[in-house]
Amino acid sequence: MFFPVCANPMLRKTNPTVWRAWRLWKFSLHSSTACASSGPGPLDRSEEPSSVLTPNSPHTPVMLKEVLHYLDVQPGQVVLDMTFGGGGHTKAILNMLHEVTVLALDRDPTALCLAQQLAKETSGRVKPLLGRFSELEALLSDNNIKPRSIDAVLLDAGCSSMQMDQAQRGFSLSKDGPLDMRMDGERYPDMPCAADVVNTLDQQALASILTAYGEERHARKIAAAIVKARRVNPITQTQQLASVVAGSFPAAVLYARKDRLQRPAHVATKTFQALRIFVNDELNELHAGLRAARAGLTPGGRLCVITFHSLEDRLVKRFLQGDDLSNLDQYHFSPRKRGAGKEKLVEEKRDGGMVDWLPLRRKVITPERDDVKENPRGRSAKLRAVLRC
User: Fold this and answer.
1) How many other CB atoms sit within 10 Å of the CB of residue 275?
2) What's the rounded Cα separation, in Å, for the pair 387 and 361?
3) What is the pTM of this model?
4) pLDDT computed for residue 16 by the predictor
5) I need a surface site. Which of 91, 101, 103, 106 has the fewest CB within 10 A?
6) CA-to-CA distance for 157 and 94, rounded, in angstroms?
7) Which residues contact 146 (CB under 8 A, 6 or more apart)?
């Protein structure tokens, strides 16, 4: 059973490495944001973070203590961080154990630069890998990493805070910038961006994207507004698109939607999510990443997957249950009804030996209230932790 670090001091005795890594990370965040001290004070040098744990700008990894607990990394092991991003989880693992190697994958060249810098600071304990989930097996082979040789895998799906905070990347509707949304546009300059999607696809196709990937109830209304607006001027900026979507609703409902913290949520939020998922082919990439993790993990290896919306979590849950996801489109348009096909699924698993995973915790894990207050962007995170059979 998992005991929250901050809520149960017994974890310091039962799992001291996780407790110490959490303490180090909290210290580093305080140190990176605090003003100059008014005077010297006592400091326990055993708790002082090393340079790898002190980022140039504060980055709060989602559900850090839960990830450290369930990955349960041991000395000498090989860990695969499939979404390096700002490197928060990787840095915590490196500070928890010095005799560990982390394979740091990301499709974003900006994240690769951060991983390369961290590799220099840690004397090669980090192995940067640039590529998508669908390219992972080839990347591992090129780096002489054999199948079933990785001890722990972390997959933190979705868009990183680093990408959201850069207006020029076009992910955030609160920051005006070019309507891009490509996670690896530098590598694939000919890849269509979000502006290409909203300015070229017909109304029916746009509505289908908003329904499938944003679960937007007003998809047809929004698609009609986009088509009408682009006849006057092409939609090329993020806040231009946000205004078009907002214009299709009465003023009274613009912020009627609430997020999980009961804060007003812009009516274009689901539209932006849908376009981002479509542009980056995120669900197919997530499925490819899960298959690659299964192929790479050694028997007894651990997998932690963090998702941020129901489409991702539904896919991960069904993959871990052994569902056939060869026709992925059928799985993200609507959730499976409770109990539907359950008996057939159990028979398939028993007769076909399809069970590859043992859950480390039966129910999905969500952030604690204090963690959500500290890092509101992680409010919708869900963690699933399993053991490779």
Assistant:
1) 26
2) 10
3) 0.80
4) 53
5) 101
6) 21
7) none
Element (H, E) at 219: helix 219-232
Report the alpha-carbon distance of residue 60 to residue 245 in Å, rounded: 31
The H-assigned helical ranges of 122-187 are: 136-142, 161-164
Q: Which of 360, 364, 369, 388 is nearest to 308 (CA)?
A: 364
273 and 322 in contact (C-beta within 8 Å)?
no
For 28, counting Cβ atoms within 10 Å of its Cβ (0-12 exposed, 13-18 middle, 19+ buried), the class is buried
> What is the per-residue pLDDT for 378?
79
Q: How far apart are the first and last CA of the chain?
A: 20
pLDDT tens digits along 265-275: 789 999 999 99
Instruction: Write down the residue that tokens 């509707």 correspond to.
Output: 173
CB atoms within 10 A of CB 228: 13
Distance between CA atoms of residues 300 and 387, nearest Å: 6
Sorted by sequence, the CB contacts under 8 Å of residue 389 that are 6+ apart come out as 299, 355, 356, 357, 358
Amino acid at 17: T
| Residues 113 and 262 sit within 8 Å (Cβ to Cβ) | no
Say if CB 30 and CB 23 are below 8 A apart: no
Nearest to 3 by CA among 321, 255, 368, 254: 368
At residue 139, the 3 state secondary structure works out as: helix
- Name the token pair of 229: 């607006």
Give pLDDT tens digits for 12-43.
544 555 545 545 544 444 444 333 333 333 33
Query: Which is it for the CA torsion 10, 15, 16, 18, positive or negative?
Result: negative
CB-count exposure of residue 45 (10 Å: 0-12, 13-18, 19+)? exposed
Q: Which two tokens mark 136?
A: 């992972």
Pick the closest to residue 278 from 342, 346, 183, 349 (CA basis).
Answer: 183
Helix (H, G, I), strand (E, B) or coil at 168: helix
Q: Is 250 exposed, middle or buried (0-12, 13-18, 19+ CB in 10 A)?
A: exposed
